[in-house]
């Protein structure tokens, strides 16, 4: 078993701390023990990041870009090992894990370049004897708290722009998936990132979070995870008025119009629904199909869902791995039981399999009172409801406290644009089940979060705007 430690001020520490176990959700086997850090370690990490900020923020953008590019190269050279580690601790199929490493590394290369494009501005003054300038500066020390469902991409999507902007970082990965995070930090060290610039603390979430929330030297919190914890962290950030970026829950609707290309729509739904066994905040959670094509759409969908292979992610033909834990299984089962009690029909799936596996499921006869039509399932359940008019579909799709991703399938581009503009969502896949990519803004409306990650928008979250008035 490999050793995994905390990474604070360029040193691998925490060897004397108690540990917590990391298990493989596919087999329930213990795969590693990781130090159970807490308040003291979080403080040390913050001290290191504060000290390192002085020199890191003073480096030229080109110096930072070069180190970030070296990190990118090392991640690429180690992608098989990183992907295998991810599959072992998180469960997703190896082919998906490899895809995530490439996606994650896409943020690293994008922000290595973007570091060089942090432009300022000059603004015409109203009087002759003044010159007005705007420049951008790094926010300061950043605290990042990340989830288990994307153990690499949720880290690089935060850390790469923060480093590029000149910020230093303290990071707490999720309890279930710290190994990928630690391996990424080892590669950052190998790339030559100066000590204290990136610090990783594993352990007791609330203590670590509290230490960073109360620390006025930490100027920004960036978080991906549940809406519940996001709200707690937002409240906790108020005391020291930190900047906050939150990427929280979703409840993505899919609208399939009567003029959709049905094969495209079915493939899009499968891609968005079953990615990571449905454990993605942009996974489609509820499908609205025009009543005229509902029977044909459902038949084609069910046929394809039946072909999905459930199994250990390390096996080559696996499409759907295990869910992360028992609570995730119970949530899916509860959503299906509730739907069936309220009149839904299981077209395929609906079974808890041995271990942490749940069979990919399609249900029909769905109505808006069912839990699955109101809450994020975060599992492989596909509820299919029908609608009569475009207005009805839009209203039902928007009837949610969430606003992260939505999907629309239609071959009529005018209608597609009209629906897209009416949807209260931050990300829309129009005839596309996989809109995520490093160069675009990712984030939600309403209670799905604040701020944007990715693209040129992502680096702005780590920059302060400074206005300088020069009197001549
Ligand atoms: N938007 C998204 O991408 C995600 C959404 N979710 C949703 O949330 C549900 C629950 O998943 P869960 O893993 O519990 O998500 P959480 O929001 O609890 O966890 C996300 C991260 O926050 C940390 N955390 C939890 N509580 C605190 C706290 N009080 N202070 C500081 N950090 C904290 C966790 O640490 P630790 O792991 O140590 O508890 C983890 O690193 C899922 O079923 C899903 O619906 C989950 C993951 C990602
Ligand atoms: O928050 C998530 O669930 C991970 C984001 C997935 C993506 O970037 O598409």
TrEMBL record:
* A biological process from GO: aldehyde metabolic process
Keyword field contains Cytoplasm = no
Q: Which UniProt keywords apply?
A: Oxidoreductase
Instruction: Classify the source by domain of life.
Output: Bacteria
**Cited SUPFAM superfamilies:** ALDH-like
Which stretches make up the Aldehyde dehydrogenase domain? 12-468
Instruction: Please give the coiled-coil regions recorded for this protein.
Output: none
Q: Where is the active site?
A: 247, 281
Q: Family, per the entry?
A: Belongs to the aldehyde dehydrogenase family.
Q: What is this protein called?
A: Aldehyde dehydrogenase
Species of origin reads Mesobacillus campisalis
């Amino acid at each position: 078993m490999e050793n995994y430690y905390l990474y604070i001020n360029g040193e691998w520490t925490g060897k004397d701390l108690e540990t917590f176990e990391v298990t493989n959700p596919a087999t329930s086997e213990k795969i590693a023990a990781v130090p159970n850090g807490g308040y003291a370690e979080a403080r040390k990490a913050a001290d290191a990041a504060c000290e390192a900020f002085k020199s890191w923020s003073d480096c030229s953008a080109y110096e930072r870009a070069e180190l970030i590019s070296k990190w990118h190269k090392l991640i690429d050279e180690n992608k098989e090992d990183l992907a295998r580690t991810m599959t072992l601790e998180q469960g997703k199929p190896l082919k998906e894990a490899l895809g995530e490493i490439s996606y994650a590394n896409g943020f690293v290369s994008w922000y290595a370049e973007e570091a060089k494009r942090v432009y300022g501005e000059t603004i015409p003054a109203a009087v002759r004897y003044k010159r007005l300038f705007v420049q951008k500066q790094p926010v300061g020390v950043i605290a990042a708290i990340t989830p288990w469902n994307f153990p690499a991409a949720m880290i690089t999507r935060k850390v790469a722009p923060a480093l590029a902007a000149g910020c230093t970082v303290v990071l707490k990965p999720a309890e279930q998936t710290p190994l990928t995070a630690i391996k990424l930090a080892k590669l950052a060290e190998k790339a030559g990132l100066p000590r204290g610039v990136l610090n990783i603390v594993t352990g007791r979430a609330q203590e670590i979070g509290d230490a960073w929330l109360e620390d006025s030297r930490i100027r920004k919190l960036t978080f991906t995870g549940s809406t519940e914890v996001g709200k707690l962290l937002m409240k906790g950030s108020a005391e020291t008025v930190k900047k906050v970026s939150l990427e929280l829950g979703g409840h993505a609707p899919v609208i399939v119009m009567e003029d959709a290309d049905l094969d495209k729509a079915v493939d899009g739904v499968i891609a968005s629904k079953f990615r990571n066994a449905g454990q993605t905040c942009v996974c489609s959670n509820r499908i609205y199909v025009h009543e005229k094509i509902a029977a044909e759409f459902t038949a084609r969908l069910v046929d394809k869902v039946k072909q999905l292979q459930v199994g250990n992610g390390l096996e080559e033909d696996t499409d759907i791995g295990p869910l992360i834990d028992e609570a995730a299984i119970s949530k899916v089962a509860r959503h299906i039981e509730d739907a069936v009690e309220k009149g839904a029909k299981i077209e395929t799936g609906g079974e808890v399999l041995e271990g942490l596996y749940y069979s990919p499921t399609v249900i029909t006869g769905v109505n808006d009172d069912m839990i699955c039509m109101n809450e994020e399932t975060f599992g492989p359940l596909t509820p299919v409801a029908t609608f009569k008019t475009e207005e009805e579909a839009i209203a039902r799709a928007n009837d949610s406290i969430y606003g992260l991703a939505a999907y629309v399938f239609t071959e009529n581009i005018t209608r597609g644009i009209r629906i897209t503009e009416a949807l209260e969502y931050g990300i829309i896949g129009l005839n596309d089940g996989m809109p995520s990519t490093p160069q675009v803004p990712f984030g939600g409306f309403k209670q799905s979060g604040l701020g944007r990650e990715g693209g040129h928008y992502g680096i702005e979250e780590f920059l302060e705007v400074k206005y300088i008035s020069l009197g001549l």
